[in-house]
Amino acid sequence: MATFFPISEISSYHSKWVIRARVTEKSALRTFAARGGQGSSNSVFSASLLDESGSEIRASFFGMACDKYFGIIEQGKVYTLANGNVKIANRQYNRCSHRYELVFDRDAVIEASTDDAKIKTVSYEIVSLKAVQSRALPCSVDLCGVIVNFRQPLAFTSKAGRELVKREITLADDTKTSMSIALWGERAKMEDKHFEGNPVVCLKGVSLNEFQGGRSGSLSESGAMQFQAEVPEVKKLQQWWAADGANADLTSLSLGSDGLTDLKTVQTKDLPCTVELCGIVTSFKDIFSFTSKEGRELVKREIIIADHTAMSFSVTLWGNKAKKENSAFEGNPVLGLKGVRVQEWNGGRSGSMLEVGSIVFQPATPDAQKIQQWWTEGGSTQSLTAISVEGGGGGGGGGFRAATGTASNLAELRDAAETVTAQGDVFTLVTRLALVQMKKRDEVQPLYYLACQEPRNFAGGTSTLTCNKRVDSSGYCAACGRVVKTAPRLNLRCRFSDYSDGLWLTTFHEAAQKVLQTSADEAQALETGEGGRDALEAAVRKQYFTQPMQLSVRAKLDTYNGETRSNITCIDARPVQRGSHAREMLKGIREMLAVVA
Ligand SMILES: [Zn+2]
Predict the structure, then answer these.
(1) What pTM does this model have?
(2) Which residue among 125, 318, 531, 594 has the highest number of C-beta atoms inside a 10 angstrom radius?
(3) CATH 3.40.50.1820 corresponds to the domain 410-583
């Protein structure tokens, strides 16, 4: 059996060699401005060649080699290759660690070979995420990490008119660093279950880019992605995650941050946005733990920070960041907060620390010194303007509620609902009505009920509020103790849809009338009229998908039969304000394009 020249020993000192290698990666065909004389092709493709020694080299196929072999060479197959030229690797295009690269042209001799299990299918040159931080850009790396977070796939059209599907995942490794990576095409479309449960994944050919002052990665379609690859890093990271990785404070490379934002600027930023803040802790609440619907134990803590702009702002911390001792927050420490998501809440603004965000206590930075000095020299007694609204409607006085996260679509709402508290949060999002529940287990569901219209009783007299209790079929109100004047009130189960998901929401009277664009009286008139129930159902169906609606949705934690679970209801609805909604979407598109570019 012939012995082949090891790829590891290829250099410009050897010209006569035959290598036997697997094509681990093959590029698309590219054309370039014609060179040379007539008849010469101006096409090229490239491939990565991996041999038994585990050494990998990049090869380019020009001219006749390109014409002849582009249709023959297949990714994943093994070939023998000879008569190529050796040149120093061009680092701009070549990410194989080999010092040289190969160029095949008219003299190339390439033949298919039998497969050999000793030649691996992928070779990784794994770089830690911490090392990624200091790499010169642009560059491409191989990574191995735990998937700590993933988003839903997103379909959109690129500037060049291409239909793209993208999914972002967050990868972390034992350098306690995390980074967001975009997957594309078929990989992005893989089912969620592949990304669930914090699997370890190896990615080959992740190109790094700068985004909003942070770094993020993008795995090209010609790159490789492998779950449970047979490389030592996988086992190491599984052990790390099981031992303490899951509880580690991760520092993210991908926090969109344009440097420090002062609180006055936070008040006028376009939302939602992610900022880096530095502020003095003026007050904080005790930690609050609760169990999410999926049985996940969650902990949060709300703090108020202030800075030299004499503004104060509420930020919710999660997990380990919340669990720090109370004493850590006492005595007005200065905090550096990286990765704070700012959102609109109840007419004010508040912040939520991203899972990948980081906190530094008493940072030794000029900004921290400036804020400390402001506090010492009068800031502590200055009256502060609150950016975050405290209390909230009706209650008055009580503690503030910080939003848990913006939800820009139903999938995000579903996620956000898992982390709400008993106090709950209100979200605004745009959806369409997809379905109204008309039947439940073959039983026709009433879409409205008759409510008592008498003034509400209370100890000592009657109030100006309406009783509104459901009356029985004879019009008897149990609260008022007699047959009363009634009015219909809508109570619907509506399924709303958007590009990301669909969700059944209990939708009460006021919101329901707007969703159906039908008053409860009209609904009652339809059902009790000639057409009967069918007429009502037909009128309801007419509203399916007619127009985008902006919903106000409340998500809160409820206890039901001793079981705690999050409950999402639609509390208000209105037709979308197309102008402002379009501006929101344009902003989102611009952000995405910035990542693609
Ligand atoms: Zn009543």
Answers:
(1) 0.47
(2) 318
(3) no
